[in-house]
Write a structure and sequence with these properties.
single chain; about 250 residues; alpha/beta; Oxidized Rhodanese, domain 1; 2 domains; five-stranded parallel sheet; 14 strands; globular; thiosulfate-cyanide sulfurtransferase activity; Rhodanese-like_dom_sf
């Protein structure tokens, strides 16, 4: 989808990274996130101020825990047991060169959502993000709970089994991924095609998006929400084999 949009805007040297964000993240490569993402997910994510307690004492993002960059890996035992937790690291500026090796190490522990805050603390200040001085926390405290728009596995399975008339399941996997089967009654539109095929979806139903791991389902949720649809997404693993659903497995 992004490649087609770029081509329409006149770009001629466009390449597509087919492995996508999941493969990029699994390899431990950096993913940047925005001030807006952090503001909307405040209280649902783990924010790590890698500048350390002394800098955080003078001012830090509300809710952040201060751990010096050189100490982050040594504090592995502090990190949430839930490997699906969203972790956002920030420095004074974006700091990709300094943070890259630490992000790769954290990703190697099995965490699926590790981000670096684009612009760092300076960018947060410029965006009028909330800060606090003093009251510095140095220990991670995390309670797993659904993020905005998420649907939990039990409710998803109940929808699959009961098939409520006012709910549509949207499968945003690729055609090759659906060859083993799809959920009965689900509509398959790959996330890359979704923006251009929104008219195929009803606005009088709630649309529940799923993919294989939850990453593309969240992308679909964002596209649908921005287009005015009532929507949620499953942030969990799903496989459909011989038309039998296997959901929410480790």
């Amino acid at each position: 989808m992004a490649a087609r949009l770029a081509a329409k805007q006149g770009y001629t040297n466009v390449r597509v990274y087919h492995a996508g964000v999941p493969a990029w993240a699994r390899a431990g490569n950096l993913l940047l996130t925005t001030d807006d993402f952090v503001k909307k997910r405040m209280g649902f994510i783990v924010l790590i101020d890698t500048r350390g307690p002394e800098a955080a004492e003078k001012g830090h993002i509300q809710g952040a825990v201060a751990i010096r960059l050189k100490d982050v890996v040594r504090e592995k035992n502090q990190f949430p047991l839930d490997r699906r937790a969203h972790l956002v690291l920030y420095s004074e500026k974006t700091g990709t060169a300094d943070l890259a090796s630490v992000v790769k190490k954290i990703s190697s522990w099995g965490y699926k959502h590790v981000f670096v805050l684009d612009g760092g603390y300076e960018g947060w200040i410029k965006s009028n993000g909330g800060i606090q001085k003093g009251l510095v926390r140095t220990k991670i405290f995390y309670i797993p709970r659904p993020h905005p728009g998420e649907i939990v596995g039990d409710e998803f399975m109940n929808i699959v089994e009961t098939k409520p008339a006012d709910v549509l399941i949207l499968d945003v996997r690729t055609p090759s991924e659906t060859t083993a089967g799809v959920i009965e009654g689900a509509v398959n539109i790959p996330v890359d095609d979704l923006q251009g095929r929104l008219k195929e979806l009803p606005k009088d139903k709630e649309i529940i998006a799923h993919c294989r791991t939850g990453l593309r389902a969240e992308m679909a949720y964002t596209i649908l929400r921005n287009a005015g649809y009532k929507t949620r997404f499953l942030n969990d693993k799903v496989s459909v084999i011989n038309d039998k659903l296997y959901c929410c497995f480790k």
